[in-house]
Request: fold
Amino acid sequence: ETGVTQTPRHLVMGMTNKKSLKCEQHLGHNAMYWYKQSAKKPLELMFVYSLEERVENNSVPSRFSPECPNSSHLFLHLHTLQPEDSALYLCASSYTGEGTEAFFGQGTRLTVV
Amino acid sequence: AQSVTQLGSHVSVSEGALVLLRCNYSSSVPPYLFWYVQYPNQGLQLLLKYTTGATLVKGINGFEAEFKKSETSFHLTKPSAHMSDAAEYFCAVSRIQGAQKLVFGQGTRLTINP
Reply:
């Protein structure tokens, strides 16, 4: 069992739907992240939450809305998505010390129809 | 700003042959460097990382990488490829302060021929 758990693993949604992706980490980390992985593109950091800061990638559309109620849980709320938002969404967590690695969940495969 | 370039989006080797996946980075500060592997329909798994100290880093599954500052490189190698090594490999660099924010290369898909 991975230390970072994402649900659901697969999601198909229409452009008018509202859905949420969930991520939970059991590693005691103090930072969590959302990444987007599209075909033939580098992984794109979308959002970062930590004790020290919350960082948003300014290129991420407002139809993606993160929520981090505590250090173990992270959500990505989705509404009025576009077909080009179809991708693998990866959650990760880490400590915030220098040189520490990120641990990734298995991802949610999102298809927007 | 930091960036990573992986040379070759697709590498194919025979089983038992040497695996060499190339990674060059750009960083204005001393970098932390990582290699991750992604199997189909899975998340990313850390293979190895370089922070400070010894420039030759050994990782899991027989992989190793060497940090060469003069060449701004961090190439990944394995002496003898196994069929189970078929996957996508990502090189990444991170900044040294604040929350870990990995900047990834485009990835290299490794195929192993029997």
About this structure: Chain B is about 0% helix and 55% strand. The radius of gyration of chain B is 14 Å. The mean pLDDT of chain B is 91. The interface with chain A takes residues 32, 34, 36, 41-46, 49, 51-52, 90, 94, 96-107 of chain B (CB under 8 Å).
